[in-house]
Amino acid sequence: MKSAFLKRFAVIAAGALSQVLCAGLTACSGINDSWEVKGGGFLKYSINGEDEIQQELDRDDVEIPYIRNRHHYLQIRIPMEHSERKEAIAVMVNYPKLGMNNVVPTYTWLQFEGVPKAYITSDSNYVHIDQKDDTKWTATINLHFEDCRQGKCNANRPPIHFKGRMHYWIAEEDQ
User: Fold this and answer.
1) Which has the closest alpha carbon to 143: 125, 123, 118?
2) Which end of the chain has less neighbouring CB within 10 Å, N or C?
3) Residues 3 and 75 in one domain
């Protein structure tokens, strides 16, 4: 009688243990899929104060100086095909440093689907970098663009205000 009870207990215990192990492994299955490991991040932004959107940044959407390249600039790109609202943006900063940074006007633009690229206007454009190290870069972006939404750029219309916050993690293999 005792042996039948012990056998049944052993089978139940083994089943419970295998369920616990499977649950533990499943819970950890995506642990190495995070931005901190694979690289990438997001840009949370609004245009003209409208609803804020969080756009995911792939590993190749951001170029950090001297990480996988020999460049001295920071460049952020969101291709139109990745954008939920069909907007494309490029922002470039030469020799980025902590604090306020000017953007490179010829490489900083905004484009809505079906219209020309809008380049920055005014002198109140900046990228404020508050973290830049071997693992993570964060920045506040404040830009004003020409209004090209009606098929051609018009300097008589108020500029488009782009305001955002970027978080980007450098892939472990690039650190």
Assistant:
1) 125
2) N
3) no
Q: What are phi and psi of 168, to 5 degrees?
A: -140, 125
Structure token digits, residue 64: 């950090």
- Give the DSSP H/E element, type plus range, for residue 16: helix 2-27
* Residues 54, 81 contacting (CB under 8 angstroms): no
Rounded Cα distance between 90 and 119, Å, is: 10
Q: Work out whether strand 87-94 and strand 109-112 pair parallel, antiparallel, or are unpaired.
A: antiparallel
Per-residue pLDDT tens over the stretch 76-130 = 999 999 888 889 999 999 999 999 999 999 999 999 998 999 999 977 899 999 9
Look up the domain containing 124 and give its range: 36-174
Kindly state whether residues 19 and 52 are assigned to the same domain. Answer: no
User: What is the DSSP pairing of strand 126-132 with strand 136-145?
Assistant: antiparallel
CA distance 39 to 175: 10
pLDDT of the residue at 25: 47
CATH number at residue 48: 2.40.128
d(CA 100, CA 19): 53
Q: How far apart are CA 148 and CA 21, in angstroms?
A: 57
